[in-house]
């Protein structure tokens, strides 16, 4: 986009500068008209080149957008697969941890019962 803005600015500045130079130059009306006719072709050529550059930039942006969308879709798919594989890989550990936590809870409950019994027998 910066190239496009620069090119537009350059073209516009060139046109304004040329017009100012032509209008302020000390020449007769006939000479001025001849100079305008001679430079008209050059300005048309520059305008056409600018148009072609703008079309190229537009096409590049469209292509980059399409490629970006495809890459994002691929990355999202890869992330989903990685998360799924990670979940599967931790499943055995998860079950083992849950079993150990259950055993710890049971042991705590047994200890609490034992303490309660000892408290009542001591009192």
TrEMBL record:
Q: Would I find Signal among this entry's keywords?
A: yes
- What would be one Pfam family of this protein? YtxH
Signal sequence residues: 1-20
Any coiled-coil regions, as ranges:
94-121
Q: Which UniProt keywords apply?
A: Coiled coil, Signal
Q: Does the keyword Signal apply?
A: yes
Highest rank taxon of the organism? Bacteria
Q: What is the protein name given in its UniProt record?
A: YtxH domain-containing protein
From which source organism is this entry?
Lederbergia graminis
Upper classification of the source organism reads: Bacteria, Bacillati, Bacillota, Bacilli, Bacillales
């Amino acid at each position: 986009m910066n190239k496009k803005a620069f090119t537009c600015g350059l073209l516009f500045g060139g046109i304004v500068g040329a017009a100012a130079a032509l209008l302020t130059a000390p020449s007769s009306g006939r000479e001025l008209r001849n100079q305008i006719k001679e430079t008209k072709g050059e300005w048309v050529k520059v305008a056409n080149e600018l148009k072609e550059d703008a079309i190229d930039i537009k096409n590049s942006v469209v292509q980059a957008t399409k490629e970006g969308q495809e890459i994002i879709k691929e990355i999202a798919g890869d992330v989903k697969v990685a998360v799924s594989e990670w979940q599967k890989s931790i499943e055995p550990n998860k079950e083992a941890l849950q079993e150990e936590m259950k055993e710890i809870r049971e042991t705590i409950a047994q200890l609490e019962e034992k303490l309660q019994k000892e408290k009542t027998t001591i009192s």
